[in-house]
Every structure is written in structure tokens, then in C-alpha cells.
Amino acid sequence: MAADFFVSFAKHDIDWARWIAAVLELEGYEVVFQEQDMLPGHNVVRQMQLGAAATRTIAVLSPTYADRPYPLSEWAAAYVRDPVGVERTLIPVRVKECRPPGLLAAIVYIDLVGTDRDEAKRRLLKGISLERPPAEEPPFPGG
Prior knowledge:
CATH topology: Rossmann fold
CATH architecture: 3-Layer(aba) Sandwich
Distance between the termini: 55 Å
CATH class: Alpha Beta
Radius of gyration: 16 Å
Mean pLDDT: 92
CATH superfamily: Toll/interleukin-1 receptor homology (TIR) domain
Number of helices: 5
Shape: globular
Strand content: 5-15%
Low-confidence stretches: none
Order of helices and strands: EHEHHEHEEH
């Protein structure tokens, strides 16, 4: 059975990736994460294939993410399975100021830039939820 999430990140963003993976695991999701699932003796290609087979991929967005070859192949695998985003197999999570390039620019991301821990956690969990958020009455626009 495939894991719920694979966390894809550039090396410079490992602290964010650790935090995201931990938050998801503590919520009961099964997560494929490099530090925990690619240990000495493992075949890296096989473990990456397990990550690519996860139901959804979290792309930890930063200025360096899109420039690295491994993250490119990781998010591309999720994108190919669901290019129009119906299944939401690719969920970008922006952790540093950046503009997602190319095809990533068309995908709505969860924005954690400038948030505190509690707000970041709330946004992450709300953003990965498969349920449509309930309607909330906005402020009345009239005078």
C-alpha cells in the first residue's frame, strides 16, 4: 500500500521538510521522508520509487527547490499522474519567498512564509485536507 505523502525538498530546506514530515506523521499520515526512509544499506532508487508511489507529494518550495535535479524528478512524477490537479497529487508548500517557475506556477500552494508555528501548522493541515472547507460568512460589505 502506498504512503499518504512523500516530502520532496532541496537540501537547504531540510529543517522545513523535517517539520512538515513530523506534523503529518503526528496527525496519523504515513510519510516517506528521506532521513527516515533512506538508511544505510537501502537502495536509494528503490526508496525514491516508494516516495514517488505515495498518494501525494509535498513539494517544499524555496528559491533553491526548482533548481535542483532530484526535486525536479520528484515533483514531476506527481505532476505526471495528475497534470490538471483533480486528485491533488502534488501539493506545493512555500516556505521561503520565491515565485514557483514553469509548471509549478500553475499549482496553488500552501503558503507558510512569515507565519508562526501554530499558523503554519493550521495552514498545512487545512491545505492537505481533502474536504472542502466549510463556508464562513464574510464581513458584511454594505454600509
